[in-house]
């Protein structure tokens, strides 16, 4: 058995160790990612095992990468009162999670056209939203502002 310092966290389902700098999965449902719960899974199979228990209607596993040991230790010393906080992203790395609320988009498309929406649409739309935001950020910087406004889009 390894010492607690040799792994980042334990899988919320099978309790196996999730080491530093390896892929892990989280649930797309916000209630699974709150401060008190923050479920992490060592595999998609472990994530899938929690879905019936939590009674999710629509959810998916989101792949993440565990922090390095140094990142985790520096984060733990910065915020000792909140060990459930997510690990900081490495410098320069921009998170690429889905930015679109799937249920709202699916409801809109169904109400507007009667059509269904594939889950793969969320990532494509998220990429486009990121590109729009990047352009808006640049416009705000050019205007000397630190706030993005509607006119930047």
Q: What would you note in describing this structure?
A:
The chain is an alpha+beta fold and 153 residues long. The protein has two domains: 7-91, no CATH class; 98-153, Histone, subunit A (Orthogonal Bundle), CATH 1.10.20. It is built from four helices and four strands, in the order βββαβααα. It has helices spanning 44-54, 69-78, 102-113, 121-142; strands at residues 9-10, 17-18, 23-27, 61-65. The strands form two sheets. It has a two-stranded antiparallel sheet with strand order 1-2. A two-stranded antiparallel sheet has the order 3-4. β1 and β2 form a beta hairpin. The longest helix has 22 residues, at 121-142. It is flat and about 50 Å long. The relative contact order is 0.11.
What keywords describe this structure?
153 residues; alpha+beta; Histone, subunit A; two-stranded antiparallel ribbon; 4 strands; flat
Topology, element by element:
Blueprint: E1 9-10, E2 17-18, E3 23-27, H1 44-54, E4 61-65, H2 69-78, H3 102-113, H4 121-142
Antiparallel strand pairs: 1-2, 3-4
């Amino acid at each position: 058995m390894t010492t607690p310092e040799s792994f980042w966290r334990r899988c919320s389902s099978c309790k196996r160790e999730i080491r530093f700098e390896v892929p892990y999965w989280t649930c797309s449902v916000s209630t699974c990612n709150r401060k008190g719960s923050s479920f992490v899974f060592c595999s998609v199979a472990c994530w899938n095992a929690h879905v019936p228990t939590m009674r999710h209607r629509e959810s998916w596993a989101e792949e993440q990468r565990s922090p390095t040991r140094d990142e985790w230790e520096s984060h733990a010393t910065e915020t000792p009162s909140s060990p459930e906080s997510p690990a900081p992203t490495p410098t320069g790395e921009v998170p690429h999670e889905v930015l679109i609320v799937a249920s709202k988009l699916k409801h809109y498309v169904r109400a507007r056209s009667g059509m269904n929406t594939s889950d793969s649409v969320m990532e494509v739309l998220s990429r486009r939203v990121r590109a729009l935001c990047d352009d808006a950020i640049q416009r705000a910087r050019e205007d000397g502002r630190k706030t993005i406004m509607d006119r930047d889009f």
